[in-house]
Amino acid sequence: MTEVKKSSPALIAAAWVIVVLPTLWGLNYTVQNALKIFAKPAPAATAPMK
Amino acid sequence: MSLGFLDRDRSIAPAGYSRWLVPPAALAIHLSIGQVYSFSVFKNPLLALHGADGSAWNLKAVGYIFSIAIAFLGISAALFGAWLEKAGPRKAMFFAALCFSIGFFVASAGATTHNLALIYLGYGVIGGIGLGLGYISPVSTLIKWFPDRPGLATGLAIMGFGGGAMIGGPLANQLMAHFKAAGQPSIPYTFITMGAIYFVFMMFGVFTIRVPAKDWKPEGWTAPVRQSALISKHNVAVAQAWKTPQFMLLWIILFTNVTAGIGILEQAAPMIQDLFKGVISPTAAVGFVGLLSIFNMAGRFIWASCSDLLGRKVTYFVFFTLGAVLYFFLPLTRLDHLNSVTLFVLISAVVISMYGGGFATIPAYLKDLFGGYNVSAIHGRLLTAWSTAGIVGPLIVNGILDHYVANKLPKQDAYPLILHIMSGLLVVGFIANLFVKPVSEKYWLKDSETLTPVGAAH
Fold first, then answer.
1. Which residues contact B318 (CB under 8 A, 6 or more apart)?
2. CA-based torsion, B72, B75, B78, B82: positive or negative
3. Number of CB atoms found within 10 A of residue B340's CB
4. B272 CB contacts (<8 Å, ≥6 apart)?
5. Do B246 and B129 share a structural domain?
6. Residue B33 shares a structural domain with residue B140
7. Which residues from A are below 8 Å from B208, CB to CB?
8. Residue A12 to residue B18, Cβ atoms within 8 A
9. What pLDDT shows up at residue B258?
10. A37 and B16 in contact by Cβ < 8 A?
């Protein structure tokens, strides 16, 4: 009986890393931008009291 | 050069090949071609270009680049679907990568010579063909590898298309900034660099993809004896499938779901600023668009995976009932009513997740009704619903907005009408879904026909 050679778990993990890494990079960039929607607008500059 | 290594027969998985290597291959393609959703980052830089005679392009003319690409996505998916079934996913992915990259290179020449027709031809036509081929190429292969979870498998791949903009947008911005700082022509060099990067990335998909051997099935898995009447054990060839009422109903389902989603996506940034005047800054509006893209992507995976448990018909009923209600109530969150940005963002995020979910669940719905035999080709033809929605959706949205602006009516009052029309469209989708029944026996492929297949033998 011939032994079946199974795909190595390291190879599977490497394949996922190749697609997950750029996705996480893009996700991080998008989340950083998306959070701006909940940021309070900066208060308008006011003249110092005399 | 012989391209024999791309043949279907040369890409049959050896025994022991893990099916978990196939989704990354599909994702490599979809994450690349999903870049098209971020094309808007090139709009302003393209408008700033000037020809030798000082001429510049206008927004409308530049906007056609994206429209042509999406139109050719639908056309090529419909035309090449049957070829793909014969040629196999590896060859289709290879040509998708080739077209997508060449599209960038031709567009680069167009930007250098200030020739918009060349950009239409490159990014729009050639790149658009790459989009169509790439979009449908891994679908039937994934369904064959994951007969136990077809929704999860196709959801994973199609999620990549939603996520592609998250990579493509910042990548383009950073490349343009880099070339500008170096004193080089930013758009042409960015196009060339992106074409090269995406080609290499897509080649990873090309060489990783495998089709399962004939009669392969997951270890320990047996097809359920009793299952929903809507999950057919029979196959329907593409030539027959598109003549069935089920195909027309699914076309309406996809069309209504996509048109409704475009109602928000098309005007997301201006809409939130108009409905919450003075509260939402342009920067925050861009953040809102980013948030929608995350939910668009997540919805593709989550809803398609859920459809494996709920069933496809029930999943679309959720989209069409919950979606119709949410679209109806969305305008009530605005400044002069409930005045809740949080509620507006939350509802928008849920409806956009269902827009993405509609895209990702449709291949599994097709597989349930027509079998896996020609599912890529059938899916390709169904994508004409997307192209049509891409034209009709903006026509509705921009038509109503233009009417309000032309008649000097408050622009924010146009949005309730737009969103209520979209809600009504979802009711149409609900009715179409209600009528979906198993495909009649007269359309089934006879066993003798499957021995000499039009498409996939395995």
1. B310, B354
2. negative
3. 15
4. B280, B284, B285, B288, B341, B344, B345
5. no
6. yes
7. 15
8. yes
9. 95
10. no
Six token digits for residue B185: 């022509």
Return the minimum-mean-pLDDT range out of A19-28, B16-25, B286-295, B378-387.
B286-295
Are B253 and B388 in contact by the 8 Å Cβ rule? The answer is no
Q: Distance between CA B187 and CA B176 in Å, rounded?
A: 6
Structural domain including B144 reads 4-214
Residue B242 corresponds to which amino acid? W
Take residue B131 and report the two structure tokens written for it: 């989009």
**A45 and chain B: CB distance < 8 Å anywhere?**
no
Which of A19, A23, A25, A28 to mutate: most B Cβ within 10 Å? A19
By the 8 A CB rule, do B296 and B356 touch? Answer: yes
Cross-strand partners of B211: B12
Residue among B167, B285, B287 minimizing CB distance to A26: B167
Instruction: Please indicate, yes or no, whether residues B189 and B251 belong to a single structural domain of this protein.
Output: no
In terms of CA atoms, which chain B residue is nearest residue A13? B21
Q: Give the C-alpha separation, B350 to B332, whole Å.
A: 16
- Supply the pTM of this predicted model: 0.87
- State whether B89 and B166 are in the same domain: yes
